[in-house]
Amino acid sequence: MSQLDRRTFLLSTGLIGATAALAACSGGSETPTSTGGAPAVSTGKLSGTVTLTTWGSDQEVAAFKKIAADFTAARGAQVKIEVLPYDQIRTVVDRRLQANQAPDLFRVSYTDVTGYAANGVLADLSDHIDSSFGQQFFPGLWAAMQYDGAPIGVPHHTDTSALVYNKAHFAKAGITSVPDSLESAWTWEELVGVLGKLKTANPGVSPFAFNYQLYGAYRWFNTLFQAGGTVLDASMKNVTLDTEQAKKALTWTQSLYTQGLHAPSVLVKRPTYPDEIFPTQKISMIQAGDFLVPSLDGAIAKKFEWGVTYLPHDKAAATDLGGNAVVVTEGSPNKDAAIEFAKFLVTKENMQYFCEKTTVLPVRNDLADAKLAFDVKPDLMPVFQKQATTMPEALVKTSTLPSFPGINQALVDNMDQFLSNPSATVDSVVGGLTTAIQKALQV
Amino acid sequence: MTTVVTRRRAPEPPVRAGGRRRVASAALKAERRAGLLMASPALLVFTLFMFIPLALTFWYSLQRYSGFGRMRFIGLDNYAAIINDATFWTASLNTLLYTALTVPIGIVCGLSAALLLNRWMPARGLFRALFYVPVVISGVASGIIFLRLFDPIVGILNQMLTTIGLPAIDWQGNGTWALVSIILVSTWQGIGFGMVVYLAALQGIPREVYEAGTVDGAVGWKRFIHITWPLLRPTTFFLVVYSIIGSFQVFDVVYVLTRGGPGTSTTFLVQYAYDQGFNQRRQGYAAAIGVIIYLVVLVFTVLQWRFSKSRDDA
Description:
- The complex is a heterodimer of chains A (443) and B (314).
- Chain A is an alpha/beta fold.
- Chain A is 42% helix and 12% strand.
- Chain B has 2 domains: 2-60; 85-313, MetI-like (MetI-like fold).
- By secondary structure, chain B is mainly alpha-helical.
- The longest helix of chain B is centred in the N-terminal third of the chain and has 49 residues, at 12-60.
- Chain B has helices at residues 2-9, 12-60, 77-83, 86-117, 124-136, 139-150, 156-163, 175-203, 207-215, 220-231, 233-248, 252-257, 269-279, 283-313; strands at residues 63-65, 71-73.
- Chain B has a two-stranded antiparallel ribbon with strand order 1-2.
- In chain B, helix 4 (86-117) crosses helix 8 (175-203), helix 5 (124-136) packs across helix 8 and helix 11 (233-248) runs antiparallel to helix 14 (283-313).
- The A-B interface holds A 91, 94-95, 97-98, 115, 118-121, 204, 206, 263-272, 277, 280, 282-283, 405-406, 409, 412-413, 416-421 and B 66-70, 87, 151-154, 162, 170-175, 258-265, 278-281.
């Protein structure tokens, strides 16, 4: 891939670049660095044990453990990696916070981090970082780590969605080539044509499935932004779904279900994830995140050949902001060690190591142009990297709002209802979404 | 002499009565102490895990609370919001529908199993155990087993249906079939308990009643209608009330199988309270729903308690 593409995109979306205002928000003005002149960087030996609670694939867990071992060797403090199932981690962490038994650190998506900050449970990192610390990261993501002017976490990586397809099913349907650039990506109409061919050629197999489930429900916004729609207006206070673009996106999404082009049981509310079905060859093509490449590779093994191509576009190309941060809890009994480990996770070397092992994308400026040696399917990663350049700035801003968990939940409730009921009207779901999102914005 | 007797008798009653009172009082106190001591472990457990959570639930229901962080007193606002919450009413209707379907089905299946296994047959003990096994399997484990069976894409049930030429059923994407799948699993889980209770009741019916009935021509179906069913009425009442209470609390199977979807097709009250409390971080609102469920269940519990009491008194 052209490495310039990624930087150009990052510049255009505000995820990277010299945004002085955001850099100034990094807490530097209140850190000992700015007043004392010396960086507030701790390099001494640490003691005790801290726990990082996370979900993760085998590759992610192994990468976390390796970095934790390196941290112990370098700084002395032990790090325990606690792994929970993805769809339970939010509930479990919440309950532990409620019981004052929270982990020292936990992994959290960019879309959920400010929800925790708003409840005052995250540690303020100001006293532990120097003024230049935040400048290492893409400003858009570092801005997402700020709450009330204080840094409350470190951005760890980003990821995004593209189309993963079964080459054998495509060959059977006579589809011999797929788009090899963003510019040649299928239009919605072309994608429907492809799905129709897949349906005819592969009876008993669902042509397609989206990855809109539960905490990932917001990925439907890809479709919305592809149609030229938006979720909120520029003030980020008013819902903008009662538009022709939004209605077109909803109609098109529903049509995939009603025409039998989408797996009917893969909806929004249940943890029926398309990437778990794709290896069984019961679905020919799925929308999936790059972080799934290692687990797909392991599950598919040599059963069939598969590839990756670009998301379709309508008025525009668009994909979602995925990825996660690492935060330290305010109640951690060993906060110093926890914060130091959080910082250690996002050094250039460790971020690069984690990304290469787990096929996710880095969020440091000095890695934006780096050529990463991905461990698994390195040939597929350029597609994701290019696709990531289509993250709309408005979608990034929306995804990092404190109220975003409520917005996502509005999608879970309303889209599941809409897509499971062929007679549901677009106007009814627009009304339901608008009311629910407006309510979430007020919380 | 008379005087002597009078003298002897007159002072006795107060002394003896007072002694008895003291003895009785001491015995009563000792009994109370022993009772309290013996009940204290249960009291402690109930206080910790029932009375305090109940009081806290009511307290939370008057708050705006995410589960952690700041708690704000809002009075009865959560209850007022519930009245205008369309999803709450949908969940209530779904719960009533679920109750109306699962309770009779559970009663019929439990009674049928009991009647079948109350007579001699080979491996009767094994069959009784097999019927009872689902009762002791956790709801989540059962849910996961049936999740694999009902999976519309890779599930065994649909593979069997398509193998014999029948159309596959969308167990999770179609609201009606999703409800059917939950009813099937709940019934499977509940048959064993109904069977055991009915078996105990059947074995409590005196043989002489059946013999007298046989003399009067009550055999086969007539015997069931005129003897067995009327004598099982108290057991049936108990099971109906018990099943209604259970059906209002259904959660684990729903959580694992459908998460309340598609849409709100299988959203029941407890599932909705969980969703509000844990997914949407509205613990005050969820607590208010919990209080409402508690009151409904309380009505049925009192009903059952009164019935049992009047029967025992009789």
